[in-house]
From TrEMBL:
<dbReference type="GO" id="GO:0016787">
    <property type="term" value="F:hydrolase activity"/>
</dbReference>
<dbReference type="Pfam" id="PF13279">
    <property type="entry name" value="4HBT_2"/>
</dbReference>
<dbReference type="InterPro" id="IPR029069">
    <property type="entry name" value="HotDog_dom_sf"/>
</dbReference>
<protein>
    <submittedName>
        <fullName>Acyl-CoA thioesterase</fullName>
        <ecNumber>3.1.2.-</ecNumber>
    </submittedName>
</protein>
<dbReference type="InterPro" id="IPR008272">
    <property type="entry name" value="HB-CoA_thioesterase_AS"/>
</dbReference>
<comment type="similarity">
    <text>Belongs to the 4-hydroxybenzoyl-CoA thioesterase family.</text>
</comment>
<dbReference type="InterPro" id="IPR050563">
    <property type="entry name" value="4-hydroxybenzoyl-CoA_TE"/>
</dbReference>
<keyword id="KW-0378">Hydrolase</keyword>
<dbReference type="InterPro" id="IPR006684">
    <property type="entry name" value="YbgC/YbaW"/>
</dbReference>
C-alpha cells in the first residue's frame, strides 16, 4: 500500500466551534468527507462521473480518535490516503493536523504528515450500483479498479 498522503489545507471557521471555543467533534467527520472528495478530485476520480456510471460509494463505518482540539482560525491540514481496498470495499485513513503558515508544504501529495496531530480517522466504504446492490468493481468497472490499484501501489 502506498505511503503517499494527499493534503488539503483549510482554516477553522467560527461556525465549526462550540461554546468551549473548540471544533465540535462531529465536524471532523465532515472534514474527512471534504478530504476524501479532494483526494478523489486530485486523482481524477470524480464522484459525479462515478454516479453517472451508476456507481456509488456509501460509508459503512467511520472512526475518529481525538488527540487535541482545533480552535477557531487555526490552520489545519487534512491528510488522506487509501489504507486498504478490494473489488468490493475501500478504506481511507485520515489525519487532521494544526500547522502554521510557515509549516505549509504546498505539494499535493507528501510522504509523511506534519504538524500537531489533532485527530486520526478511518472510513470504510462499499461499492454499490444505483439500486444499492454491492458490486465487484474489478468486474463491473475494471478501468476504475485498475486506477485504484495504481494509486494504492
Amino acid at each position: 500500500m502506498t505511503q503517499q498522503w494527499h493534503q488539503h489545507r483549510m482554516r477553522v471557521q467560527y461556525k465549526d466551534t462550540d461554546r468551549m471555543g473548540v471544533v465540535h467533534h462531529a465536524n471532523y467527520i465532515t472534514w474527512f468527507e471534504v478530504a476524501r472528495t479532494e483526494w478523489m478530485r486530485y486523482f481524477d476520480l470524480s464522484y459525479h462521473a462515478m454516479e453517472e456510471q451508476g456507481l456509488m460509494l456509501p460509508v459503512l463505518d467511520v472512526n475518529a480518535v481525538y488527540k487535541s482540539s482545533a480552535r477557531f482560525d487555526d490552520l489545519v491540514v487534512l491528510f488522506t490516503r487509501i489504507e486498504a481496498y478490494s473489488p468490493i470495499r475501500l478504506v481511507f485513513a485520515y489525519e487532521a493536523r494544526r500547522i502554521t503558515e510557515a509549516d505549509w508544504q504546498g505539494d499535493a501529495t507528501i510522504d509523511e504528515p506534519y504538524g500537531e496531530l489533532l485527530t486520526t480517522g478511518k472510513t470504510t466504504h462499499m461499492w454499490v450500483n444505483d439500486a444499492w446492490k454491492p458490486v465487484k468493481l474489478r468486474k463491473t468497472h475494471p478501468e476504475l479498479y485498475e486506477r485504484l490499484q495504481q494509486i494504492a501501489e
